[in-house]
Structure formats: C-alpha cells, structure tokens
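Tutorial handout. Part one gives the primary structure; part two gives the three-dimensional structure as tokens.
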Amino acid sequence: MIVLLVAVTATGTIFGIQFFTKTGIFRIPGVVYYDETLKEEEIDYLKSIFTDEVDLDKDVTISAVETFEKPAKEQGHFLYEIYVPVTDFYSTETSVDSAKIYAPETKLIPLSELDSTVKLLSIDNKYFLDEFNNGAVFRSIIFTSEKYEKEIEPLVKDSFTKTFPEKDTVLTFAQTGVTALSRGMDVKLKNVGMDATYFAQNISDYLGSFDLTHTSNESSFSEGAWARNICSNPKFIDTLTAIGLDIVELTGNHNRDCGYDAATKTVEQYLNLGMQIVGGGRNAMEAAKPLEISEKGTKITMLAYNQSTGGATYNDLPGANQYYEEDAARNIAAAKEKGDIVIVDIQYYECSNYDFTYENTACDYANSSAGDQIGFFRHLIDLGADIVVGTSAHQPQTFERYGDGVIYYGLGNLFFDQVWWPGTTRSLILAHYFYDGKILQTKIAPTVYGSEMQTKLMDEETAKWYLERLIKVRP
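Part two.
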C-alpha cells in the first residue's frame, strides 16, 4: 500500500512539473509567426524550411526589412535580396531619389536579373557597381527566437547563402578613345613648366579607380617630337601612368610617324612597364595576337584591327593589325567557343567635318565618314562579338544595341590638341562592369577638355545633353 502511494505521489509530481513547465505530454510546440512585412513568395519559401515535421521548442517570429545601405552582419539577420533601379537602355537619366524609390514609375529588379540590356540607375547619386554598400535596396530576413542559435540557425543558415556581386568579384574596365600626346600638347608641356601628369590631373582619379584602363594611343615616343608631328615627347609616358593605363591599343595610323625604331622601342617601353598591348606590335605576328583577359571570374578576348586608315604592320615591321575577314571570324568563333566575352575595337575611316567653330552634329552619326560603318560594325556583332567599339573617331559618335550586342561607333579624343572644334574636345569613356562571365553594365562617362588640354568628366547636366544628342541619331 505504501509502495502504491509513493508511486502515485511520484507520478503526480512528475506530471505536475510537466504541467507547470509545459514539458512532456503538456509541452506546447513552438509556433512560427510570419510577419506582415514578408512577401508572399518569401513566406512560401520559408514554409518549405519550417515544415510540419519541424518541431520547435520556442516560438520564432520572421520578418523583413529594407535599407539603402548594406546591413552589417547581425545574429538572425540574412541578406535575402538586393534590388536595383533600372530604366531603358537609351535613357539619359542617371539617378533616382530615394524618396521616389517605391513610386510606380521606378522600376526595381533583383540584382540577379541585371544585365546590359537595361540601364542601371544610381540612388541619390550612389552607383551600386561602384559602391556595393549603397545604391540599392537591401532586403533582409530576420529571425527572432529565444533559442535562435540552437534551433533556428541550424535550420536556416544553409538556405540563406546567396552570394552577390562585390568589389572583389566584379571586374571593372574603362575603355577610352583616341590618345595622341603630341603637337599642341607638346608645346603646352614645354610652356607650362610642369611634368606630363598635368594633362591627367582632372581625370586620373576616375580612370585609376578601374581594375583595367585602356586607351588607343596613336603616337610613339621620340626625341624628335615637336609642334608639327604626331610624335610624343618621352615625358608623356607620365600622362599614361598617371591614369593607371593597363592596355594600350595600337591600331592607329600614326604610330610609325616617328620611324620604325621609335615605334618598336615604344612598344617595348609599354611591356617593360607591365602594360598589355592589342591591335599592333613590333611585328605582324605580335600585332595579330588577341588579348586574353582572365580576372575575377571573367574571361574576355579583346581583338583590335585597323580596317582602313593605314599604318599596318607587315612581316617584321612594327605597326597596326590589319583587318582580315577570315582572321576576325576565326578569332571571334574561337573566343565564343571558350565562353569568353568578346570585345572588338576597330580603327575605321574618320569623319572630317572639323572646319567649324560652332556645334556641328555631322560626325555624331554612324556612317558620317567613308564606307558602310553601320553594316561593317553590325557584321562583327553577327559574327559573335558582344561589344564593338570604333577607336578612330576624333569626336564621339552615336551608339546602339544591335542583335545580342552593343555598338559604340566612335569614342572621340581622350587626349589630343584639337581644341578648335567643340566636337573634338569630347570623348566617351565606356565603364564596363563584368561579373561571373557576364556583362552587367556599360556606363558611359563623357569627357571634355579646353585650351588648357586637361581632360575632365563633363558635369551632369552637360553630359545628359550630350548623350541625348548622340542617342537621337542612332541608326
């Protein structure tokens, strides 16, 4: 009898403890609360994690929050998605106010859907692909639970491991137009009593911020440089190093103006400085070699040709890489077979309507010079090129999306002495952004120089006016 009484008492005590502590048969399972800040598709995704088979000891509340700055890592916080504002490819708009980011006229897309067919906008003048911590809407999922570390984290951490483009994984590449550090620039260099970095003072920080910076330099270094020839004072190498130059295009028709020896030694100087060359060289074999770039998970094949303007190399003579259809088709096909992004630069015929001191729009057009520029450039896209760039134009030309690629018919003068005509004082810098073998964006940054010959970025209002002018005359 006593044994029975003890057993009953013990059993009652155990059930009493369970009742008051909500354990054992009286245990109430933890509940998942989905906050109203969550989107329907997010709830569906979360329910695939927190299924009926999941037995929680404590309640968990799941919510979402959006910020204009990338959030710091906190316990229970996971960056779920990044949304960026975009607009039409041909729009001249560059930024949207954060106060209007949720307005009906603003188009937000997941960063994973961003590609070069649309134009990425800044938010409050902060461009995501330059900033990475700003310029976007950062959406985080937040888990709140008394037993987060023990119950929730093991369940969700592997489901929120999405990676996003970052500075270390996005390859930035600035592509510029004509550089000819000669004639009036040589006179200016001697008159200003300064070193050659003078000409790059207002653009060096911008161009130097890219992983890769390119220009098409048309003048070789020579002690014989003076006011009447397209040869460069040897001091001008400092202009190129000041902008962080990595890639020198040699398709120009003036690189041999100072003689074969100067052209050869100039190429050797580039190589000794760690610069890469494309579209020209010390001999025909070197000039014809494609430039293969492999950085930050992206592979690019860059091809560059002189199609029409002379100065081509033959056998062991230095000069530009002459365009041959079979060679271009073979190189493009080989690059695409490897999965590379293909950029083709072309030294084409020049538009020469320079005899005006006022705004003359004749050279804005594609086909404003001799030959079928539109047909020729589009043909390169048809062959498989992703980006085709004209690097002979001394003033910028229009641009267009065509097929599966983009064509920039002419970039204009980055550095030169042509200050007499408004058009030739301008250029377009193509700021390419590549990620995981994909072209995310190409942002166009117009430049201008005056009688001081110091290239600088156009102010926002002038840049918008100028791009609109070029867009209006696209084919």
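Part three, for discussion. Residues 3-27 have pLDDT under 50 and may be disordered. The CA atoms of residues 69 and 283 lie 52 Å apart.
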